């Protein structure tokens, strides 16, 4: 089965709720040169971050933010209220003693004692319930799957766009090859013009051969066109067989641009220079799309 080409941009969410707990997970991924998973967890889950991270190991690059929300039910929260009876007794004794020493009516109430420090202990969150970590992992996997589905969907759109850009670049390569003959004629005309200005004494056979070879090499773009064709073929292969990875394609973008720039430096024709400009524009568009690929 051919693996799909994925974008690095996606979003997925999942949640589960029962009588005691609600767990909600959001996964958001955007472009990134490397894989960076950033977890935003309740403190109860912090010790298990490395276990959760393994769920996203299959992705090769992108910046991924994972948000996990944990909401205990109200009934469960009430169970976490703890009355410190020993502290309450201490405050009752202290307040009564104070009232007596000040010759006041001893009207200390339960409400007064409960308002004293360290009498009521609140725990805003529950300890982990049995099986809770498995619940969290299950929601993380579901959110990842939804996020991955969007990445794959966007990747299929990118795939068509990239193949179209390669097709456009191949058309420009044909135009470059078409102008190659015209460029060589121009080189020949310049060489003849230069020879016409030289005296017979200056016409050394070995030097003439060398000058001719250098001029032809300087203006001939055949090798660059061939290498461009090989790079385009490699890019198409990566995209079509499903093994496309943004890093590899990004490397080929540099090579494509290198060859086109070399053609531009050899160009002595305005028409060929315009084709080079168009080809560079296509490569830049191609590269922009590659930055979105995993």
Tell me what you see in this structure.
There is one protein chain. With about 290 residues, the chain is α+β, with helices and mostly antiparallel strands. Helices cover about 60% and strands about 15% of the residues. Strands 1-2-4-3 form a four-stranded mixed sheet. A two-stranded antiparallel sheet has the order 5-6. Helix 8 runs antiparallel to helix 9 (about 270-290). The longest helix is centred in the middle third of the chain and has 65 residues, at about 130-195. It is rod-shaped, with a radius of gyration of 37 Å.
Outline of the structure:
The protein has 9 helices and 6 strands.
List its traits.
about 290 residues; four-stranded mixed sheet; two-stranded antiparallel ribbon; alpha+beta; Ribosomal Protein S5, domain 2; about 15% strand; rod-shaped
The 3D shape can be described as rod-shaped
Rg is 37 Å
If you average the pLDDT, what whole number results? 84
β-sheet strand percentage: 5-15%
Uncertain spans, ≥5 residues at pLDDT below 50?
A: none
Largest sheet: 4 strands, mixed
Order of helices and strands: EEEHEHEHHEHHHHH
* Domain unit count: 3
């Amino acid at each position: 089965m051919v693996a799909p080409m994925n974008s690095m941009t996606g979003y997925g969410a999942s949640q589960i709720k029962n009588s005691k707990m609600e767990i909600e997970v959001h996964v958001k991924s955007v472009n990134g040169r490397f894989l960076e998973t950033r977890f935003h967890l309740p403190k109860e889950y912090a010790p298990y971050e490395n276990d959760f991270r393994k769920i996203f190991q299959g992705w090769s690059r992108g910046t991924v933010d994972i948000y996990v929300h944990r909401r205990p039910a109200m009934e469960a929260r009430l169970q976490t209220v703890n009355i410190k009876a020993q502290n309450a007794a201490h405050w009752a004794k202290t307040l009564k003693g104070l009232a007596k020493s000040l010759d006041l009516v001893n009207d200390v109430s339960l409400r007064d004692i409960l308002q004293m420090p360290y009498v009521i202990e609140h725990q805003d969150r529950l300890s982990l319930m049995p099986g809770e970590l498995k619940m969290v992992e299950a929601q993380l996997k579901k959110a990842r799957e939804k996020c991955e589905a969007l990445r794959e969907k966007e990747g299929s759109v990118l795939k068509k766009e990239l193949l179209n850009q390669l097709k456009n670049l191949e058309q420009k390569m044909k135009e470059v090859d078409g102008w190659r003959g015209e460029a060589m004629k121009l080189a020949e005309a310049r060489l003849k013009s230069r020879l016409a200005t030289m005296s017979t004494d200056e016409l050394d056979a070995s030097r003439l051969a060398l000058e001719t070879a250098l001029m032809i090499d300087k203006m001939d773009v055949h090798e660059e066109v061939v290498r461009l064709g090989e790079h385009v073929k490699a890019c198409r292969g990566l995209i079509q067989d499903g093994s496309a990875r943004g890093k590899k394609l990004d490397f080929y973008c540099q090579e494509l641009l290198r060859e086109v720039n070399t053609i531009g430096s050899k160009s002595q024709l305005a028409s060929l220079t315009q084709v080079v400009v168009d080809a560079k524009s296509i490569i830049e568009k191609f590269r922009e799309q590659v930055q979105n690929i995993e």
